[in-house]
Fold this sequence. Notes:
single chain
Amino acid sequence: MSEGELAQRAAILSQLKDLLNQQIKLFRKFLSALEKQHTAIEAGIEENILAYIEIEEQIVADILSIQKVIDSLEDMYRATVPDDISTLKSALENLKNQAMVQSEHNKGLISARMTDIGGDIDSLKNNLLAIATRRSMYHNAGTALLVDIEG
């Protein structure tokens, strides 16, 4: 992925974040207007009710216009991401398959090596037994009991 693509994605994400924050503020403003309208309705003040209806309509219009921009930005972002995601998934699947093949190959090598090592151990055991059972040529020679150190 090039730096230009990363910069484009970062710019899109930054714009999306800003717009989502604006929309959050508008929804809070909308809820506040609805609460005030509720109070006006309970109090029976028609002028305030009409004023809050106009405020609500303006806020809803702002929310809808921002939502259109958000939808467009999300579409732009999705248009750049799926290829990378499918490419990443494909690369991951390829690596997973390579790992499985290599793992099976390594298991076979380990098994063969263990068989070789077992054969080597058996061979060493047999050689040690042969060496241990073989008598030295000095075995039957008499051993000196006294050594003349005065000469």
